[in-house]
Amino acid sequence: MLIGQLSKGDRQKIMTICTIDVHARDVVAKMIAQKVDNAQAFIWLSQLRHRWSDEERHCFANICDAQFLYSCEYLGNTPRLVIAPLTDRCYITLTQSLHLTRSGAPAGPAGTGKTETTKDLGRALGIMVYVFNCSEQMDYKSCGNIYKGLSQTGAWGCFDEFNRISAEVLSVVAVQVKSVQDAIREKKKSFHFLGEDINLVPSVGIFITMNPGYAGRTELPENLKALFRPCAMVVPDFELICEIMLVAEGLIEARVLARKFITLYQLCKELLSKQDHYDWGLRAIKSVLVVAGSLKRDDPERPEDRVLMRSLRDFNIPKIVTDDVPVFMGLIGDLFPALDVPRKRDLNFESFVRQAVLDLRLQAEDNFVLKVVQLEELLTVRHSVCVVGNAGTGKSQVMRSLNRTYQIMKRRPVWTDLNPKAVTNDELFGIINPATREWKDGLFSSIMRELANITHDGPKWMVLDGDIDPMWIESLNTVMDDNKVLTLASNERIPLNPTMRLVFEISHLRTATPATVSRAGILYINPSDLGWNPPVSSWIDRREIQSERANLTVLFDKYLPICLDTLRTRFKKIIPIPEQSMVQMLCYLLECLLAEENTPPDCAKELYELYFVFAAVWAFGGSMFRDQLVDYRVEFSKWWVAEFKTIKFPSQGTVFDFYIDPETKKFEPWSKLIPQFEFDPEMPLQACLVPTTETVRVRYFMDRLLERRRPVMLVGNAGTGKSVLVGDKLCSLDTDAYVVKKVPFNYYTTSAMLQGMLEKPLEKKAGRNYGPPGTKKLVYFIDDLNMPEVDAYGTVQPHTLIRQHLDYGHWYDRTKLSLKEITNVQYVSCMNPTAGSFTINPRLQRHFCVFALSIPGQDALSRIYSTILTQHLTSGNFSGAVQKSAQQLIALALGLHQKVAATFLPTAIKFHYIFNLRDFSNIFQGLLFSTPECLQHPQDLVKLYLHESNRVYRDKMVEEKDYGTFDKIQLETVKKLYDDIEETLEQTKRMNIYCHFAKGVGEPSYRPVPTWEELNKILVEALGSYNEVNAAMSLVLFEDAMCHVCRINRILESPRGNALLVGVGGSGKQSLTRLAAFISSLELFQITLRKGYGIPDLKADLANLYLKAGVKNIGIVFLMTDAQVADEQFLVLVSDFLASGEIPDLFPDDEVENIINSVRNEVKGRGLVDSRETCWKFFIERVRRQLKVVLCFSPVGSKLRVRSRRFPAIISCTAIDWFQEWPQEALESVSLRFLQETETVEDSVKDSISKFMAYVHTSVNEISRLYLSNERRYNYTTPKSFLEQIKLYQNLLLKKGKDLKAKMERLENGLEKLKSTSAQIPSGTRPSSPCAWTPLLDVFPHGAALVIFIIFIIFVIFVIFIIFIIFVIFTIRFRGFWRSEQREMGWGGSSTGPGSSCPASQAHPQLLQLHPKEVASSKNSVAPPRASNGKRPQAEKSWAQKKAPRSEDLQKIPGLLQKIPIINKMRSAVLFSKARRSSRALSIGARVRL
Fold first, then answer.
1. pTM, two decimal places
2. 470 and 511 in contact (C-beta within 8 Å)?
3. What is the pLDDT of residues 1156-1167, one digit of tens each?
4. In terms of Cα–Cα distance, which of 76, 74, 75 is closest to 8?
């Protein structure tokens, strides 16, 4: 019956019955084997059994001791799960948890049946089970709404991947689940939930499934764990499941075939290579079994082993990589020996595929057609399919071919594509606003809803072309598995219709979880499946001339195989480039070169080969570069000349040094195309593009490729002129035909920011089409393409948006969620392979034609800079001797630069040791400041060069050791090239400082400063002038500080001069910058941080600076410190300014128009065309000239290193001045300066104190270094801590001085009082001498202070003694006053607590006294122990009486007290007769007194 012709519904019913009956058979067999003869046996009780109750007229389900009412819910004609021992165990666990009013939590790896077992248990009990796919977008309210609905319907909820919800939400969810469980346990009909009373149907069940340990998962809170009963789901018995499913599919020899099936998969898992997309689990097994069933029904007569062998082979081969195919086929041959079953083919469908391939102008090769057919077969069995393969292997063309096939077959296919990584997860699936509970729909959910609403039965594809990561793909788990439903955080459920398919186009599955891999069918396209030939053939077919097509076919076959084989192993490219990309670049270059003017229709085949070789050399070798050891271009050139001898290159130079002259059709050197360079003194050297062989040849190809609208990428290290070269090309474009938009990338660039920048120059055309204004073409220049952040799963978000546009020509509106077709645009990009993410995604990389830019050679650099320097010296009327020495200086500069770059290499600490052409240009920028008065002799030129090289190279350096090494290299290089230079070198050692204020502030002239004294005088005057108009700065201008002022001033005076000052806190970076800016007549601006200060505020401040600098032409310094970088994204704006001068979206459109109108007259006045672009460029250039950025950062920690990596412009577009520790001389001069202001210190010791302070600071520094080397821990001592030391000393000195002064004044006041008192005493009572201490004062006239001090001490002792006596008396009085008197004179019998009485009649009239002997005996005596009630026993009464004081002893106290004079004077104040004492108080008082 199963292999006969049945309807779909009947077949499902029969298969379900077979599945249940096979399980029943196995249970019965097991019971017989175990000889079960009792209904109470566990093997019987553990089965889920249904019974009908006549009494209650209802059906019940029993398992163990749990009983459930059958809910009679109609769940449709759905398949049942194969019931294995693991299923039975899970049933028992889940039903017991429900029986105990708990919830169930199956947990285990992917493909073990957690969700399906829960659903199947629900089917067995007739209860509807709703599956919800949990995600980060779910909050406690959306979860609560689900529980509310489940509670009122009695249905079950299965929350898939429950631990993807954030931990904060899970804590609240625990309370919600507990309230539901408590209501069930208390058998309530309704209960209070989320602020309202709702009805409760007690059959409600809440289940959660989890994949522990997968990416993006959280740990469940303990209060939530306690509510769920865990059930561990392990790998089930595959063989049993396979056997039962084979039976259900109608195969008779199920047991034998199941064993072979599972054996094959186990061997594949062990023997095949470990690929990310291989899955040999339960879902893969099920898919093959479904295929086997369909094959058996299509061909009932074919033996079952042949059917299974064919399904195993044909279903698995599409995902097997090329290297594993022989192993896999060998395994199948061993399991199914002597079987060779032909592949099942649908020739009619294949003919449609071939027609579709030809319609797309592709090559209908057998391998390609086979891949299209395999994709169709996969889509028939699986509703989620991953098309996996490297960049350029033909994934997109396979999918397009199948889609075109459907169109030819009139099946009305629908295709929607989307890159899920081009948007955020919230934008992809939607999000609820937590405040308003308003739902914002997502891109994927809206597309899926639209497809679900299409009524026709044609195939509907959602093509998700982007990297897979768990953060978004796991939200599709319920769509990709058998539930086929998308559950959103808004609790909307969008079904996946039977005609809908999810197609993932990806290059790898490295970041996908096993849960994802197991849910999708895999079509792997190997690089060898397509190769280079079909794309090339398709390109050749598009050429119009027949003879050209024939010649090109021959040439490709001749050159390409050898080139590609060699390139795979031998030569290194500047960045990894896909093989297909190089072939594509060759085709693009041939498009440019095989124009009618170069190759007429009737030309010879040799001419075709000439241009083909020229194009091939640059397509395959253009991305090669020179590293520290090998020049791969030279190596490639040698190999090419030796390998291909048909086209001969000139013998001198490499194959890259020549181009084809269009007139002679022969190779000519590129140097012929180099135009004459005219240096513009007004233009900064950084903006100058000096033509070289390198720039000319790259420009040659750029011109032609951009004309054909092909994407171009220039790759090279910092300072090789990439951006300048591209900028020069784009500036030369016709503004009537082209619009240029520069898009600088940085670490924080996101796809949303990028999309905003890309859409700015676009305007809406017809329908959903967008493009540049009018008929213009738009060129996007993307600088630093590899700078944005790489996420945890290896994706760069902005790149996905660019790739989506390059692949499909559109992107989506993020607000309206509508498609935007972008036309008439093209891309040019630059990239530094040593910065950012180093490389980019190969699927984006393959679109670009890559050219490597290396640093020009020595000859080119010599020619460039000799031209610049010679023009400067000639135009400035320098002396002939100086002009003649220019070439020698160029040799010195090149030699030193080369040695410095080779010696000082970057490390983790010295990350900024990158010496490139920017540094070389900065040196010559300094030389161009020179005047004839400054340079009168060649030696002066050498001195100036030594100064400039120190500023550029030496000021960057971190350690004293590096200083020494540099000085040594510099000295050796100079001596090597110059004779009789010793005297000049000696002068430079003493002092070699050039500055713009050598003649004084306000007289700018770049010249040397003769002496330190003169420099100090100028700077002190400048500081005084500064303090007159600004808040006063107290600066000590020691030598180091003066050097830094000169350095900062030099940077600020340079065109586009921006500075990075690096030093620990308190080094003086800000103060010296303020002084240097004042000397240069520049305003200084710093942001003022306040609460809530963010990016918009910084943009507003920068916009004001732009207007001041660009419109009002005011020079400004923007000073920014570490403390002012409240948000790292502040540096995005600073970096954009440093790199290009432009900050995207700084001004609104109306403000831009105002700026353009403001500068229009000045532009006209300079004789320029006052177009919008020219005016804006003029404004930006002026801003870059007038606005200077000075960054003051600390080198402590890794923050500066991280910033330099994220924002390379901070290092590459600034001049670095590294502040070292203050030298000994600086420490002494600073401390002495502060001590001079301290009046309390004698002048004779100030110098010693300052030296000691400096010694303390330096010694702490030395110990800190020792501490670091021994303990690997840092102790930072900064100039700030030295200043704090001085401040602490001054404060302590002031405080102690004040204390001493106060004491002296107090003593003097006391003496005055004594004198005045002495004068007031009557003469009869005075001593004969006027003052008792007068003789002492006479004897010791200079020791008055000592005498006074002794008297003061005696007085203090006397007062203390008086206070002590008073304390003793009052202690005796008040300690006894509140005690009760004993009825008898003893210790026992009466309470001493607060409740005891003290009759007045028993009080003694006088103080009592003990004899010293009895006091001593009482000290040695021990009090008798107390009873348990706290009282002492009565038997001890005689002991107490014996120790009581005698009356005659007590009567002696007044006589003793009268002997103390002070007591007599105080007798009137003490009322002894009124004190009533207990015996205990008397003894204590006596002891204290004695």
1. 0.82
2. yes
3. 999 999 999 988
4. 76
Phi-psi region of 1281 (alpha: psi -120 to 50; beta: other; left: phi over 0): alpha
- Is 830 strand, coil or helix? strand
Of 124, 25, 47, nearest to 78 by C-alpha is 124
Task: Taking residues 500-505, report their average pLDDT.
Answer: 95
Rounded Cα distance, 95 and 120, in Å: 12
Distances (CA, A) of 1356 to 310, 347, 1363: 114, 122, 11
The distance from CA 705 to its chain's CA centroid, rounded to whole angstroms, is: 36
Query: 802, 782 in Cβ contact below 8 A?
Result: yes
Contact indicator for 1021, 1001 with CB cutoff of 8 Å:
yes
Q: In whole angstroms, what is the distance from residue 1484 CA to residue 1374 CA?
A: 12
Q: Is 737 helix (H, G, I), strand (E, B) or coil?
A: coil
pLDDT, tens digit, 9 for 90 and up, residues 376-393: 999 999 999 999 999 989
- Asked whether the beta carbons of 1369 and 1332 are under 8 A apart, the reply is no
- Say if strands 994-995 and 777-783 run parallel, antiparallel, or are unpaired: unpaired
Cα separation, 908 vs 1195, whole angstroms = 12
CB neighbour burial string for 139-150, b if at least 16 within 10 angstroms, e if fewer: bbbbbbebbbeb
Element (H, E) at 1079: helix 1069-1079
686: amino acid identity, one letter: Q
Which residue type sits at 58?
H
Q: Which residues contact 800 (CB under 8 A, 6 or more apart)?
A: 419, 421, 422, 466, 467, 751
Kindly report the CA angle at 130 between 127 and 134, in degrees rounded to 5? Answer: 150
DSSP label of 1005: B
Residue 1293: CB partners within 8 Å, gap ≥ 6?
1238, 1240, 1241
- Evaluated on CA atoms 1429, 1432, 1435, 1441, the torsion sign reads negative
Instruction: Specify the DSSP element, H or E, that contains 97.
Output: helix 85-99
Give tens-digit pLDDT for 413-463.
999 999 999 999 999 999 998 888 899 999 999 999 999 999 999 999 999
Of 1029, 1202, 1182, 1238, the C-alpha closest to 1122 is 1202
Are residues 665 and 596 in contact, defined by beta-carbon separation less than 8 angstroms?
no
Q: How far is 397 from 401, CA to CA, in rounded Å?
A: 6
Tokens representing residue 677 in the block: 């360079």
Q: What is d(CA 510, CA 85) in angstroms, rounded to the nearest whole number?
A: 33
Per the CB < 8 A criterion, the answer to whether 882 and 935 are in contact is: yes
Dihedral of the alpha carbons of 1369, 1371, 1376, 1378, in degrees to the nearest 10 = 130
What one-letter code names the amino acid at 1271? E
How many alpha carbons lie under 13 Å from residue 1248 in its C-beta half-sphere? 5
Stated as kind and residue range, the H or E segment containing 560 is helix 546-569
Find out whether 105 and 208 touch, Cβ atoms under 8 Å: yes
Rounded CA separation 1169/1008 (Å): 42
Measured between alpha carbons, how far is 342 from 307 in angstroms, rounded to an integer? 11
Residue 820: beta bridge partners? 811
Tens of pLDDT along 645-704? 888 999 888 999 999 998 888 999 998 998 888 777 778 887 788 888 889 999 999 999
Which H or E run includes 994?
Answer: strand 994-995
Q: Look at residue 1470 and tell me whether its pLDDT is greater than 50.
A: no
Angle between helices 693-707 and 722-731 (to 10 degrees): 50
With contact defined as beta carbons under 8 Å apart, do 422 and 797 qualify? yes
Read off the pLDDT of residues 1188-1197 as tens digits, 9 standing for 90 and up. 999 999 998 8
Q: What is the rounded distance in angstroms from the CA atom of residue 992 to the CA atom of residue 954?
A: 13
pLDDT band at 1323 (very low <50, low <70, confident <90, very high): low
Distance in angstroms (rounded) separating the CA atoms of residues 1107 and 1114: 9
CA-CA-CA-CA dihedral for 155, 156, 158, 159, to nearest 10: 70
Residue whose structure tokens are 């020494």: 964
Give the per-residue pLDDT at 2.
Answer: 56
